[in-house]
What we know:
The structure is a single chain. By secondary structure, the chain is an alpha/beta fold. The chain has one domain: P-loop containing nucleotide triphosphate hydrolases (Rossmann fold). The protein has helices at about 15-25, 30-45, 50-55, 75-85, 85-100, 115-120, 130-145, 150-170, 190-210; strands at about 1-5, 30, 105-110, 125-130, 180-185. It has a 5-stranded parallel β-sheet, with helices on both faces. α2 packs across α4 and α7 (about 130-145) packs across α8. It starts with a strand and ends with a helix. The relative contact order is 0.21. Bound molecules: adenosine-5'-triphosphate and the ligand Nc1ccn([C@@H]2O[C@H](COP(=O)(O)O)[C@@H](O)[C@H]2O)c(=O)n1. The ligand Nc1ccn([C@@H]2O[C@H](COP(=O)(O)O)[C@@H](O)[C@H]2O)c(=O)n1 binds next to α2, α4 and α8.
Amino acid sequence: xxxxxxxxxxxxxxxxxxxxxxxxxxxxxxxxxxxxxxxxxxxxxxxxxxxxxxxxxxxxxxxxxxxxxxxxxxxxxxxxxxxxxxxxxxxxxxxxxxxxxxxxxxxxxxxxxxxxxxxxxxxxxxxxxxxxxxxxxxxxxxxxxxxxxxxxxxxxxxxxxxxxxxxxxxxxxxxxxxxxxxxxxxxxxxxxxxxxxxxxxxxxxxxxxxxx
Length: 212
Ligand SMILES: Nc1ncnc2c1ncn2[C@@H]1O[C@H](COP(=O)(O)OP(=O)(O)OP(=O)(O)O)[C@@H](O)[C@H]1O
Ligand SMILES: Nc1ccn([C@@H]2O[C@H](COP(=O)(O)O)[C@@H](O)[C@H]2O)c(=O)n1
């Protein structure tokens, strides 16, 4: 079974995708990490994130980079949103994601274009939402817990800028697939959001069995 989980920054899609992977005993890929690794490589090599060829060169990163805590910083998240807009960066990362999705037994992937581009054939597609203010509060709390002194206003501005860039780029913009189930987590606890996500996956897969 392939489960696609998409949505904007701090909507809770990673939390939900990890929980679904655990529930269904499937491997999970956080595809945002791949774009973050490219961004960190661009920064490390002092390349220009605005130049597509520079970013493509940075796609050839060492696997160990995926475990580097620098990838989790907000600065790299912002830079990832810039480098991910280049079509050739997206194609450089495409096959790896498709291979992961289509491994025997299936997988759970979360990102921005899983249901639309990486696995349009997914058995269940979820698009996770929450209001920008609520997402900013969640991300702010997370950053503060890691020692950051960034203001809530700054985090909200960054979230809005990232939403705009991710949803308006020419290639694989962030948008719900036509057949995605929408899940707004704004007023749901983490546990309630996970239970709702499982119920949506069950409903989708049951409907597929009924109408093959
Ligand atoms: N329903 C919820 N209620 C409250 N907090 C939540 C909820 N879902 C997730 N969170 C918290 O919000 C933060 C962001 O969640 P998460 O990392 O799952 O989002 P994301 O959409 O994967 O973000 P990103 O795209 O930036 O990786 C985390 O600190 C997480 O614990
Ligand atoms: N499938 C994806 C996943 C991510 N991106 C871009 O990477 C940025 C960072 O993603 P996080 O999920 O780790 O926050 C994100 O803002 C996107 O620009 C993508 O394009 N496609």
